[in-house]
Amino acid sequence: MKGSPFIMSKKINSARRVSKNILAFKCPLCESEMRVVEHKSLICTNNHTFDFAKQGYLNLMTQQSNSHYSKELFEARHKIINGSELYDEMHKSISNVIKNSMDTSINPCLIVDLGCGEGSHLQRIIDGCEIEAITGVGLDIAKEGIVAAAKRYENPIWLVGDLAKSPLADHSFYVILNILSPSNYKEFKRMLVQDGLVIKVVPGPNYLKEIREALFESTEKKDYKNDDTISLFKEHFKVIHNIKLNYTKILTKEELYNLVGMTPLAWSGDQDRINAFRNQASAEITVDLEILVGINK
Ligand SMILES: [Zn+2]
Question: Which residues bind S-adenosyl-L-methionine (predicted)?
Fold first, then answer.
């Protein structure tokens, strides 16, 4: 067999985890049931076949995505999430919500992060829960994000996939995480078990305001308005918690560099302004987030 033993075992371990949770999968092409064959492929009853990558993830896209999120963006995001403490309070709050509402007799208990990027939020939230029965599933349309996640974090199941052509089965997930990422509430409702939780994180008006103020002259791109997002969420789910986080952290020069690198907002900014922002020795950065916790109505 080709490849190092470490890489091979990653693929086999991943195939085992998927096999153990096979009922949570459906074919993204024909919606039929799936099975894992020879620790190598996920195959549906109509023989649509998806192979495990050597890093352990599965690519379940039915057509190529146009995601222009690069490897560098996910690397910057990884460094910020794990190195800067910017999101630590968000992770803690979400872990607490899960811990306090989880029926610990359920095993395995599947938690899916829809729009997981490079996977650090999901991994850190699961770590914070300290519940062995939890199995994490991370789905993102951006392959570079999933490759980065699978390289670093071995326990969750990592999937390249599209919410609109979802590879995930009905009523399979106890918790859906949706962190600073687009939603598809119809799909969320379909995938959630009865009484399952949807935990959605939306930016508040002051989220990373320093970067917006530094990069844009006009006011039009400065403010996030989240009223529409929140009312749409409330139309679909009964909100049982609404946690507002508002704090600042001092970031170092290196961290500011990574913050710009992980922010799609910066792509349309003026290069001189971006450089001026990145060259500060340090700066105070605002985190303003709203965590909506809902159950199916
Ligand atoms: Zn199929």
Answer: 87, 118-119, 207
263, 73 Cβ separation under 8 angstroms: no
Q: How much distance in Å is there from the Cα of 33 to the middle of ligand 1?
A: 8
Q: How many residues can be counted in the chain?
A: 297
Query: Which domain, by its residues, includes 122?
Result: 57-296
What's the rounded Cα separation, in Å, for the pair 103 and 106?
6
Give strand pairing partners of 44: 34
Compute, in angstroms, the gap from residue 29 CA to the centroid of ligand 1: 5
- What CATH number is attached to the domain comprising 234? 3.40.50.150
The rounded Å distance from CA 9 to ligand 1 centre is: 27
* Separation of CA 137 and ligand 1 centre (Å): 20
For the record, the structure tokens of 56 come out as 């352990």
How far are the Cα atoms of 6, 208, 230 from residue 2, in angstroms, in the given order? 11, 46, 50
Q: Would you give per-residue pLDDT tens digits along the chain (297 residues)?
A: 455 565 568 899 999 999 999 999 999 999 999 999 999 999 999 999 999 999 999 999 998 877 778 899 999 999 999 999 999 999 999 999 999 998 878 888 999 999 999 999 999 999 999 999 999 999 999 999 999 999 999 999 999 999 999 999 999 999 999 999 999 999 999 999 999 999 999 999 999 999 888 887 765 555 667 888 999 999 999 999 999 999 999 999 999 999 999 987 777 778 888 889 989 999 999 999 999 999 987
- Domain count of the chain? 1
Q: How far is the CA of 27 from the centre of ligand 1 (A)?
A: 5
